[in-house]
Amino acid sequence: QVQLVESGGGLVQAGGSLTLSCAASLRTFSFSAMGWFRQAPGKERDFVATITWNGGNIVYAGSVKGRFTISVDNAKNTVYLQMNSLKPEDTAVYYCAASRISGATIMYWYNYWGQGTQVTVSS
To answer: What does the pLDDT look like over 26-41, one tens digit per residue?
Structure first.
């Protein structure tokens, strides 16, 4: 059983930055990739970014490309999402998830999910 714990959310003004972390309970050799998704109130959960544990096959959603950076620290079994130039429309609960498929951009391919962390961007 994989446990994923997100942290780092909070309230930030537009134009500001936040870094989210997702700690995995164990090195998920069976899960080659990690991803971030987000869900705004009343909306579906959307893909944000994904990366493999060796730091490859990085994919970003168009809405965050150039502003967000996904990275991994294998020694800490942790994946990060650095978010810069935040906009009010980035407000959402952010979830990390583990997948056996590298480069996956839809929820169907992710097998384990964290509990989410709230990010609120004020205008």
So the answer is: 655 678 899 999 999 9
